[in-house]
Amino acid sequence: MSQSGIAQKKYVMFIDESGKPYGNSPFTVTGVIMEYIYSVNANGKNSKLKQKLMAFKKKCFGDENIHLHLKQILQAQSPFDINNGITTKHLQTFWQELPIFLHGLDFSIISVTVDKDKLNQYYITPKDPYDVAFAHILEAFYSFISLNNAKSARIVLESRDDYQNLLVQKAFFDIFNTGTIHLNVKDNSDKIKGFIFADKKDFCYQSGLEIADLVCNPLSRVRRGLKEVNPKYVNYPEHNPIFTSICDKIFKGDPNHDFRNWGFKKVPILKKARPWKIV
Questions:
Q1: What does residue 267 show for φ and ψ, rounded to 5 degrees?
Q2: 162-178 helix and 129-147 helix, angle to the nearest 10 degrees
């Protein structure tokens, strides 16, 4: 219990990325924040998130245990192909139901898109895209922790190869240990209790990682002014229904703030923001 008598909650931020940190293509890191008790499977029991996710998978694909990976679904690749019994009807159902499903989940979003072209164009010695992304992700996450009077928080990422894990870990701890101009590491850093690399099918964290994977690329594309997805074999609507269904989950610190300055950033910021339009 906090001094105010309100029970303090534990949170987990599940992180996914879209694009590559090298080269000139855009690079996005997205954090999906959920309550620990809501999202993490423990003691052999499925979390509420896992139960909802299994029901969604069963409704769309007839298989509650299939692992959702957006890239494979977009391209109708195994296990989401005809050789595995997946029909066009299955895919249509998935894309129709996904916005409704995501809207009904309890989570907050912090997403940062790094324009590496502009980093290289405007800075003589541009920072590593991971450093840039994690600086903004942690600034917003610390604000979230403070505003929600969190008891503790963990950060969970899907494990990649050893070298990429090392790059991510270095970027995180550089910011975690030293802070930034806008981030005082003394504020709430003691509440970060873990930085975890988990296998995509890890029993405890699988469901949260799947949700992060489902929203990261659509958020990245919309932030860059593109249609959120172009799935194979499906005539997808132009009005970005995924983004429309989750935009109220984007963290913005205060109801009167512009979410582009908080949980839906595109950096570096080189010009005054214009009125927001989804497409």
A1: -125, 155
A2: 50
